[in-house]
Amino acid sequence: MAPLRVALTQALGVAQVLAGDDCVPYMTDWRKQYSGRALAVVRPGNAEEVATVVRLCAQHGAPVVPQGGNTGQVGGATPDASGRSVVVLLSRLNRIRGIDTDNDTITVEAGCILQAVQDAARAAGRLFPLSLGAEGSCMIGGNLASNAGGTQVLRYGNARELTLGLEVVTAEGDVWHGLRGLRKDNTGYDLRDLYIGSEGTLGIITAATLKLHPLPVAQRTALVALGSVERAVAFLARARARLGASLTAFELISRPCIELVTRAYPQQRLPFAAASSPWYVLLELSDSESEAHARAQFETALGAALEAGEIEDAAISESAAQSEALWRLRESITLAVAGEGKCIKHDISLPLSRMAVFVRSTDAELQRAFPGIRNMTFGHLGDGNLHYNLVKMAGQSDDAFIARQSEVCRLVHDSVHAHAGSISAEQGVGRTRVDDLPRYKDELELALMRRIKRALDPQGIMNPGKVLKQEAE
Ligand SMILES: Cc1cc2nc3c(=O)[nH]c(=O)nc-3n(C[C@H](O)[C@H](O)[C@H](O)COP(=O)(O)OP(=O)(O)OC[C@H]3O[C@@H](n4cnc5c(N)ncnc54)[C@H](O)[C@@H]3O)c2cc1C
Fold first, then answer.
1. Which of 90, 138, 204 to mutate to test the pocket of ligand 1 (most atoms within 8 A of CB)?
2. What's the predicted TM-score (pTM) here?
3. What are the pLDDT digits (tens) for 254-291?
4. 429 Cβ partners below 8 Å, 6+ apart?
5. Burial state string for 10-48 with b = 16 or more CB within 10 A and e = fewer than 16
6. Is the separation of the CB atoms in 306 and 221 below 8 Å?
C-alpha cells in the first residue's frame, strides 16, 4: 500500500479511507464531463482531522481535492487522471454548531446540506436565503468555495454576501479560526473573501458563520409573458422601483425552455392559454406585512406594466401550491434540457444595459455559424446572470455537436467579453473554464491571483489545475 494511504488510515481509521467501488461516486462530476482516479478518498470527521489529512498530503506532496455535494458544474471537485490525489469528503462535518437569534447568525460545518441550513434557520424563525436547484444535495462548504448565487441574489446577495466568518484548514494544515459574527471588522486584509470563491485552491473551509434574515410574512409568485429581452429589462426596473426590497427573485425564461419543460413533464402547465410569447419572467415578492398587502403590491406593479405595454400577460399565484408549481416550471429546465442530449452551457453575466443587444446579436451570430443550433436561454436576470445554454439541432448526434463545443464557446464568450460581461457568473472556473481565463482576464489580475496562490499554497497541492493553470514544476 502507498505510504500516504497507510498514514491516512492510521490517522482516520480504516472505515474513513474508502476503497474500491466505494470510491466510484466521487470520481466523476455531476455533468459527467470528467472522470479521474485518486490515491485515496477520505472522510475526516472534524476540522482537526481535515488538518491532519492536509499535513500528511503536504508531507507526501500529494494533491488535495476537496469535495462537498459534488453538484458543481465546472468539474472542480473531480480528481485528475494521475491517481495521485487525495479526495477529501466534507460530508461528516455536518453539525449546526449554533444559532444566535440576537445577532441573526448561524454557525454551521462545511458538510451541512444547504437545505438543512435553511430548515434550521426556519425552525429558529429566521430565513437563510441562499437558494438553488441543487439545495437538497449541495453542501455549505461547496456553496462558499464556489461563491454560489441562485435565485435570491437580487435581494440578499450571493454566498459571499451572506458570510461573516470562516474556519479554514490552510494548505499547510493549520486551522484558521475566523468564525466571527461581525458585520463590521476592518482589521486588515479580508482573508474570508479570499477563501470564498477560491474553489478549494487555497484551503479547505470547515465551518462558517452565516447571516440570517427575518422570515417573510407572505410570499407571492407571478409569471408574466413579454415580447423581448428589452421589455424584460424595462420591467425589472419598474418592478424594483415599485417593490423595492420586497422583490426577491426575477427569473427570465425563454419560450423554448417552457416548451421543453411542458413536453417533458406534461403535468406542468403554463397559467396562460398558450406559450405564444417569446419570453417569460418569474417574479417573487416577499412581504413583511400581510398576504393582502403582498397581493395589492403585486397587482399595482403588474397592472402598471400591462398598461405601459411592457408585459403581455400575467398570472399571480393564489396559494403556496400555485407558487410551488410556478417555481417547478423554472427549476425543471435544467433536467428537461439534459433530456435533449449533450448541452453546451454558458453561465454568463452582463451589465443589464447590454443584455438585450447581447442576446439578439449572439443568437444571430450562432445561427450564422451553426445553423439550426437551439438556444435554451434562462437565468437570474435580476442580477444580470444568464444560463445561455445550447442544444443540438434536430437529427444531429451528440458526438457531432460536442465536437464543435470549443468553437461555440469561443463565439459566445468573445461576445460576452465584447459586451463587458463575465464568462462565469456563479458556477466558477473549475476545470471547464481554466483555459479560457487568460483570454478574457486582465494579465495583471491573473498575475496577482498567481501570487496569492503561491503565498497561501506554496507547494501548489490545493486542487491543482482548477481556476489557474498549473504552473510548470
Ligand atoms: C440542478 C442544479 C442547479 C444548480 N443551480 C445553481 C445556481 O442557481 N447557482 C449556483 O451558483 N450554482 C448552481 N448549481 C451548481 C452547484 O450546485 C453549486 O455550485 C454548489 O454551490 C456546489 O456545492 P457542492 O457542495 O456540490 O460543491 P462541490 O461540487 O462538491 O464542489 C464545488 C467546488 O468547491 C470545492 N469545495 C467543495 N467543498 C469545499 C470546502 N469545504 N472547502 C473548500 N473547497 C471546497 C470543490 O473542490 C470544487 O472546486 C446548480 C447545480 C445543479 C446540479
1. 138
2. 0.95
3. 999 999 999 999 998 888 877 789 999 999 999 999 98
4. 74, 76, 199, 437, 466, 467
5. ebbeeebbbeeeebeebbebbbebbebebbbbbbbeebe
6. no
